[in-house]
Amino acid sequence: MVVGSKELWNDEYPHTLQHRGTTLHLQSPIAPHTRQAFESMIEQRTRSKRVSAPLDCAISKLFTKRERLDSLKKRWRVQRGNPKRNGMYDWSLEELINTREAARRGAPVPKLEGFGYRRSKLGLIEDVFLITELLTDHVDGLTKVRAEPEAIHQVIEATFELLHALHSQGITHMDLWAANVMLPKSGKAQAIDLENSFSEATDYLNETLGFQFGFFYYREIYRYITEADYDAAVERGLAKWFPEVRRADFDRVYGAAKHEKIGRLERRAIFTHGIVESEG
Hints:
By secondary structure, this protein is an alpha+beta fold.
């Protein structure tokens, strides 16, 4: 399942747990309490395509994601570590690759602690596991504004600072909405859910930033702030964090992203070609 050098992944994640057809690779030695919690997690059966939850072990402080591969094509691609025809990997592998690279660079994201997979009786991978550090004493931005609508400007400002911190490490998060912004009681925000992100440079930074700022408003935040007030917050954020942005290119995408649904693949067209296409 590993993409790229198998030796590299084995060196970084040398500790292995095997249980009921599932193999987990972890960076740190597996304590008995952690092993027991992992085995309980593996034994759980669910019809959900994706399950995300803290590992049921307060001592370990780990967060787990489990994604079911729902087609034979996906299982075969992931089994071989192959991309799709468009050059992208399936989302579970994209998230694994992107989370590892962002954490390696020191970007504000949870550390990747491990990964794994469950094989069917025929040997094909059916489930993919992602294991990260648990962000204790954090709340996501959407939960915060729902509980405290008056905190909307605090959430917006923290998100714009987070965008700058990610870009400073060469990480472009194309799904950064309020629920993917984790806010601590003190300190800086962190980003989660990096399956739709890039760790290489874009020739269309202005358009990409236009999407990111617009998308943050479109996805739920518009419920808690007027568009005029959000535009004013964006002006302040650009002046502080991205003063060299070319406004004509930025505004063209920003205006569309605030009001139109732009799917995950269409977002990648903005990053790679500066093209804005909505889903209608």
